[in-house]
């Protein structure tokens, strides 16, 4: 561990209110659907009601003659120009994937797939004409269940010989990062074998996806509700064969994403095609039903696990065998999501043997892809559930089992069995603080009291520790994993003649608060007032380089680029300062916005230098008259936030209802720029993780129809359903970036799901319940309790 | 979320509304009555309902409000849920209705949605039918042939089906006063804003420690709200004690026919009905706070 940045700062560490909020909360926002262009046409999609079928005919005549309709495009109409939607992460050289046209041409592979698009003068006219398109289908057998799909008895695509897309294996013995899992299992004193189910989740961002395309002139301009304007621009160019220079992508205000807007969507491509065919600006805004049905989903894995240990609680090895549901197609990073988890199953522990095998499998559902945490929540859930199972088996306290196995703070940096190098961490400190805030012993006493009294409302204590790899990502590492791009981020810091600062960032925010945080960073670094910093982002014509926002990368990668660019500004300004004060450059010291000549009282400010540089009347010979600076930062390592979460769970044994009595989390996200933003990220993350544990599940029927097709059935919790969170922090700075920050976007989501489920089971295990699938609905909990009475508790 | 095109009329009187319904019927129009619209508009936007004409009762004077008529209260069909939830007459004489109305959806819906609208919609998971049934209300219906009244026991006929015929309008609901009775509405959901998985409405009169009469309504235990007759019979004349109430509540699932869905199967609902009946009656007699 090393000390980090000098903390002379006034801004970093301050709970600044968000700059972004005034316009958002006063309705002066501009989301994509607010865009109105002259002559703009509106799109509505004709979607397949079948999960798997041949398209035998598409009759558009009635729709084309429908009032206000300007065009109807089918897959056949655009087959020659629509290309195939990109998958940027072929995890193996022999990865299989079906062609994925934005509009299905001759076969549909999930219910909700687009088979035609209506282009009309009004949104209502477009919607009306949808019902006038007559599509003839020959139904094909569907395969919905992941384990059934693995058997290949029914194929999700007639064009593929198997439902298997790829198999990816990591073995610590082969990689040289550890020993053989088979040996560990063969010599295990205790072997815990479990299968866990990661249900399908729907990102359920607040703003439905929306796209406007203006084809005016030579250039295509797209406004779209995306997390990834830069990647989207490149991918649109590659997919549609348009020069990249002719595509401008703008992400205006974007209302949440959670990975759900980390995608190149069929609807974005279709909107370009519609604009190209009509020569008019076109808008498509999905309905909530379409968003739930046809946007990409997350999780959807079966985890078959073997954990070997000694009877003293020392874990000796872990074998992970995954089935990962791709859905019907491979989206942008679909195939890589389980791989992001592969490095995290060992979590904070130092067991010596690890094997991970993942089979990526196609089914007839909308495809899966990134969803908050993306592979890492699944991994953490598995290991943290197993640690509780081991504790139960050995009759140990779940915290004691964890402590027995975790990496001690003095052992960092630590080379993990999965091949990563954890730079820093202090699991002891975070856990001790959480135990204290939770009153762990007091809660255990209350639990015992209720058990002894046979209280109808039993108490369980859920434990979860976690770490994750954030700050995606070192480009070389991505290259070694066959990802199609790097992981750097770009920034530009511009000094205006008035001394005000413009920061251009490639990390485009969609609710995180980058404008506020980046302003704090730059205000400190350049010694200018917070209010004098303007942050520009989300437009590829303004922010020309960037790799966007996902994977808790913004501060640790994008923020570092901002700081590096600011440092270059200071270096340039020193040259001018030396010239202005007739001193030598080496004698110029910079602090708090002021350039001083060492050992004198001579000084000048950044503002004065900015004006002098703008005027350019008297600059050093050969000095380019501007202070603006660019920087591109490629991290040397991931960052590894960690934390300990404790949940007191009440289970009403009469109804099966699960309540959260107390929730404590202590997260170590390294150095914090804005505690309020961090708190907000933690709260939102907890809500999403709790939602997986208790509420949310995308359910399809046997025919492939999404049963949870509206928020009536897809239960997203709201404020009354969630507890008061008790949050704490420890601060162990990262060494992979100069600030010592680690990333916080996914922390709450990762740790809370296993904490809740461990708590539910801890409440009812003594009544004979062994496991409950997520979400732990009242019905499932009650049935588990009934089964325990009658069959001894296996469910 | 754009409905099909439809004609819209907002009559000023019941007579005018009935005339519009009759004319639409004669013209072969598929007409829907809009009484708040918190259920109708969503299904129209989803195009699960496709009326060619909508008759909005929102501008008819005299259908909105609660009046005291001696032994009973008259609740206008267009009275919004939030009025039912907060009206002093209802609080005094039938607080069960206020409590149930306060559990409907969210504040926006409670200000737009109406008591009569929800009753005619007759969603088996809706929160108003069971209390109204338990209370033995009378439904006042106007139609081409004049006014008629229907007892609550005959009003609810099936999924989303009531005694209100095409061409008719529900104008009011007469609810007997239960002044001095204990009551409770026990609703069970997975998240705060949700239709009932199961709910139980209890009206209980206790005299000197004995339950003299109990009226129990069940929400979402069949295609219509049900009276838990066996529970009522078991409670009547018995002591208002936890043991007696629990024993009586064990009959709650008798004669029910609950559905199975994502929130629970029929067996779970049958069990919930018993637990929630016990809790509702306990709360109604003041032995235990309801959830």
Question: Main β-sheet of chain A, in a few words?
Answer: 7 strands, mixed
In DSSP terms (H or I, runs of 4 or more residues), the helix count of chain A works out at 22
Integer average pLDDT of chain B? 96
Structural class computed from helices and strand pairing of chain B: alpha+beta
Task: Return the CATH architecture of the domain at 21-28 and 488-633 in chain A.
Answer: 2-Layer Sandwich
Write the H/E string of chain B, N to C.
Answer: EHEHEEEHHHHHHEEHEEEEEEEHHH
| CATH topology assignment of the largest domain in chain B | Uridine Diphospho-n-acetylenolpyruvylglucosamine Reductase, domain 3
Beta-strand segment tally of chain B: 14
The CATH superfamily of the domain at 21-28 and 488-633 in chain A turns out to be: Aldehyde oxidase/xanthine dehydrogenase, molybdopterin binding domain
Query: How many strands appear in the DSSP assignment of chain A?
Result: 28
Structural class by secondary-structure content of chain A: alpha+beta
Describe the structure.
The complex is a heterodimer of chains A (795) and B (291). With 795 residues, chain A is an alpha+beta fold. Chain A has a domain at 21-28 and 488-633: 2-Layer Sandwich (Aldehyde Oxidoreductase, domain 4), CATH 3.30.365.10. In chain A, 29% of the residues lie in helices and 23% in strands. Chain A contains 22 helices and 28 strands. In chain A, the strands form seven sheets. Chain A has a seven-stranded mixed β-sheet, sandwiched between helices. A five-stranded mixed β-sheet of chain A has the order 7-15-14-13-8. In chain A, strands 18-26-27-28 form a four-stranded mixed β-sheet, sandwiched between helices. The radius of gyration of chain A is 28 Å and the shape is globular. Chain A starts with 20 loop residues before the first helix and ends with a helix. The relative contact order of chain A is 0.13. Chain B is α+β, with helices and mostly antiparallel strands and 291 residues long. Chain B folds into three domains: 7-59, Uridine Diphospho-n-acetylenolpyruvylglucosamine Reductase, domain 2 (2-Layer Sandwich); 66-176, Uridine Diphospho-n-acetylenolpyruvylglucosamine Reductase, domain 3, CATH 3.30.465; 182-284, Enolase-like, domain 1. In chain B, 33% of the residues lie in helices and 25% in strands. In chain B, the strands form four sheets. A five-stranded antiparallel β-sheet of chain B has the order 4-5-10-6-7. Chain B has a four-stranded antiparallel β-sheet with strand order 11-12-13-14. In chain B, strand 4 and strand 5 form a beta hairpin. The mean pLDDT of chain B is 96. The interface between A and B is medium-sized, with 30 and 23 residues. Chain B: It comes from Arthrobacter wenxiniae. Chain B: Keywords: FAD, Flavoprotein, Oxidoreductase. Chain B: This is Xanthine dehydrogenase family protein subunit M.
